[in-house]
Write a sequence for this structure.
């Protein structure tokens, strides 16, 4: 029979027997060690992979939440802009209706160009709001007052 020596032979003085029982026992021990290694690899794999997957999914969720918040903000701003445009449209529609009225056009012309009806006199009053500074030396057209010549105050 041949002598088998283990890695600890230098430290201890004994020899292993070389027979079927010892070989089977050594194989069983090696299988057990390899099984433990595979088990540890499996545990590591099934512990690390889910953590990585959860981290990736969490990152995606955070990005989607940020995108959703930005879209919600854009939606709010768009609704505000839409309401402003609706108000502007209503005022423009009112302006169109007013401009279709000949009396309003006549009143507007008298006001803008200081025109007067027959027998009226236009008076320009000084501006109280300081709008002269904005418009220059042109008097405010809203302050023009017209009176009939034919009437006399007593």
């Amino acid at each position: 029979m041949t002598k088998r020596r283990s890695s600890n032979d230098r430290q201890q003085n004994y020899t292993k027997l070389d027979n079927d029982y010892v070989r089977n026992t050594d194989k069983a021990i090696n299988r057990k060690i390899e099984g433990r290694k595979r088990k540890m690899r499996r545990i590591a794999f099934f512990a690390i992979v889910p953590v990585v997957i959860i981290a990736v999914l969490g990152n995606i969720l955070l990005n989607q939440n940020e995108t959703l918040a930005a879209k919600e903000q854009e939606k709010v701003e768009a609704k505000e802009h839409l309401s402003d445009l609706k108000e502007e449209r209503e005022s423009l529609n009112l302006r169109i209706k007013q401009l279709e009225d000949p009396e309003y056009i006549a009143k507007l012309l008298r006001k803008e160009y200081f025109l007067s009806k027959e027998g009226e006199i236009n008076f320009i009053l000084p501006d109280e709001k300081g709008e002269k500074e904005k418009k220059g030396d042109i008097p405010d057209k809203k302050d023009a007052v017209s009176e009939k010549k034919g009437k006399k105050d007593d």
Remarks:
- Residues 134-154 have pLDDT under 50 and may be disordered.
- The first strand starts at residue 120 and ends at 123.
